[in-house]
Amino acid sequence: MADFYQNGIVTTLHNLTKRSTSELEAELTDFSKKRPLGLILPSLFSELEGEALPDIIHKIAQVPYLSEIVIGLDRASLEQYKHAIAFFGELPQHHRILWNDGPRLQALDAKLQSMGLAPTELGKGRNVWYCMGYVLASAKSESIALHDCDILTYDRDLLARLIYPVANPQFNYEFSKGFYSRFANGKLNGRVARLLVTPLIKSLKRVLGHNEYLDFMDSFRYSLSGEFSFRRDVLTDLRIPSDWGLEIGVLSEMHRNYASNRICQVDIADSYDHKHQDLSLEDDNAGLSKMSIDITKAFFRKLATQGYTINPETMRTIKATYYRIALDYIETYKNDAIINGLTLDIHTEEKSVEMFAKNIMQAGTQFLDNPMETPFIPAWNRVISAMPNVLDELKNAVEEDYQEFKETASLIK
Q1: How far apart are the first and last CA of the chain?
Q2: What is the rounded CA–CA span in Å between residue 15 and residue 12?
Q3: Which listed residue, 310, 339, 386, 411, has the most CB atoms within 10 A of its CB?
Q4: Average pLDDT value for residue range 116-128
């Protein structure tokens, strides 16, 4: 049972009474008459063939309040795009698929690349950025939710609670972050959040001193969740990273652009399980190893913009402080797991902490060695300023793909 305790400097909306999904959806349907609601789904084609996404789409098809669903499709050939049109055809809501590997969107991307205005890395950040651009182009939704496509424990209640804070016209939130417990199959999960982000924030506070940004980040119960919602006007000035620092980068941007009373977090699920990344102890460019480096760099970038000096001596102190705090947390998590009848592999936990400590130094080195790096994708207002017709071109490319291939796609199913 969740509690009503408010920690930190952003509002926490709890799940105290377990309101029925039908009751929440009835309210959201009423809200949507004045404030149209949308959903972004960033997806890999491989997820269409997985266990989670077919179930997610079947459940979303029953949601009554969505005006628009925008699907970002990565790593898809033409035949796979046609399959995706048929696959998502189950949705009765208006929906469009951004075929990111298709010639039309690739041509637009090349044009933006030539102007230095496109994402420089493939991945979720790029996918989400183009989806956000399409939401601006379509102008069909005023409040939008975004969630991952690999959620094995998906329920319509998750979406309803996720979008509710920015859908209710009596609330003044511009942005809401979803949180949940991370355990499944008798094990405590969420290693990067538990063993990297939380102790890293604590160590940064101890070494650099308390500041509002770190207090803000420390307020989130699950800062790495891929589930958040926002008002459409948030999108124009949002600069997001294209790497694994996406979630931290989005929160950092919300701190830059909005007062904390316009931001909240909401309990969206009793438990949550999705695809797990490998630890990748031997490869800094894969799995949780790369994720930890990108996340740490996102923190260093933000703190540098606030005037903090990040040098080798500072990094060594942060790493040593982190290591001690993180090891102490392992004992805390072990006890939490035991009282809840869950298992926790202490050896794997300590190996993770050792790798994260090493990667804090690696992240710092990369940060210092490449001071001219531009890690953020440009905000859409800058792109529009440089290329005023970009949203029309984006919308037209998506529509032309759909109109050209929808007939042959219908033969697939």
Answers
A1: 43
A2: 10
A3: 310
A4: 91
